[in-house]
Amino acid sequence: MKPLHIGLTGGIGSGKSTVATMLVACGVVLVDTDAIAHALTAPGGAALPALARAFGPEIIGTDGAMDRARMRTLAFGDASVRQRLEALLHPMIGEEAQRQATLAHGQPVIFDVPLLTAASPWRRRVERLLVVDCGEDTQVQRVMQRSGWSAEQVRRVIAQQAPRAERRAIADAVIFNDGLSHEALQAQVQTLWQHWSRLSRGRSTVL
Known about the structure:
- Helices cover about 55% and strands about 10% of the residues.
- It is α/β, with parallel strands linked by helices.
- About 25% of the residues are buried.
């Protein structure tokens, strides 16, 4: 039986990573595309030569990694830069994500994909899509607390991401993580996982 593949997405500060951790505790194997992107752009990362060719050697910082702050400034200031960056990184991320998924050995897999949209290839690779959602003010407060960014910086990032309504429209399930305690969020995640597990077992019986 093909293992269940789940897509997980949500805006910055939505609590998506917390939900991913809770699903891992349920026995799901996590493939974190953001972590893959960091590895590709870390010192010695496979994407660095192509990044230097595309954006100039100054895009590599003194530590040998991609200068994320500089890249963020360039990408937010010019949509074409962001498109070039995504065209360079996304195929490499996808290839590594698929490689990691093959190591799950039949266990269900959750792909944590921040930029998963209706047009994304990821939507076709997963049987279920879970969106973690919350209000924009909550997003701003959470990101400011953990990163030290200004409210303006956070809102600029939010503006570059898919609109909340657009994410919810393509979801198989939505968890509204605004005002929830850790325990209440965990209960919602566990209930959803139990439901999807039953559906998956029923699908295998029919097939």
